[in-house]
Specification:
Length: about 350
Amino acid sequence: MKAAVWHAAKDLRVEEVNEPNVVSSRDVKVKVKWCGICGSDLHEYLAGPIFIPTKEPHPISKDIAPVIMGHEFAGEVVAVGEDVTRVNVGDRVAIEPLLAPYADGEYKEEKYNLSPYLGFHGLSGGGGGFSEFTVVGDHMVHKLPDELSYEQGALVEPAAVALHSVRVSSLKAGDTAVVFGAGPIGLLVIEALKAGGASKIFAVELSDSRKALAEELGAHVIDPSEVDPVEEIHRLTNDGVDVAFEVTGIPAVLKQTINSTHTGGEAVIVSIWESDAPLQPNDIVIKERTVKGVIGYRNVYPAVMELMKQGYFSGEKLITKKIELDQVVEEGFEQLVADKSQVKILVKPE
């Protein structure tokens, strides 16, 4: 079968690989229907390795680069191990791709996303969604409700990042919030903030198309090329928002995110970073602000899918392009780098 294989930064190749099969009694083989290109994928493509193991095999996948990419995906179950009970052949599933210690069909740790062995199926080995078939543990599969398409299923993973970010923040119903960066995750954070009861949501973004979509989703948009976003947020609120979310990975934006909150406010860092970012501790100390980091998600897939059934995290609004696997580099990764009007590009491996 064909798969998109990461060999090094800027070296992603669509090539022939062996089709995986069920080996363990807890294995689930999935025929991938759609897989999204994630911001984390872009980081690996442009400046990796970050999560991709290149010096030693990942402790859970036992793999080392080159590895198949793709971790935002949904598909059809085509084979199961003898001890699998949560899904059957023919079921439609979304995959929770976190690699963390597991046993008997469950993750071992309550906060499994904080495991020191954290990795991702599709980044850290074990297969991936940019291939026709992949095999995962049964602890990683979630049945898709009948109301959700496979395309919508491919959005469950990034929506889980957004929902987890809001759930672990201090946001309460009626609070105000700002999202710095209206890319795919930032737009999903806006949706999660709406579901969480935020009374006013600001979005700071440069791209005209992304500004328009953020506004369509209900955010008050601020263009940082036209005004100082921190001053504008303080002007439009009671001296700052309750919670600010950093979703750009741009060093200068981190300071803006922190300073956009009021005294005692909270800044949540969602991005994965390619470089260091300057930080003035007094921005936190003198205002008694809190800065929190989040990684991945835990125990939110069912909630995400229920919210999707209510209309949140809509693929019709967020999916801007669909391509074939052979197009994944030029029409996928390179397109996302060059064209900020793209939000979520889905890849069809078959």
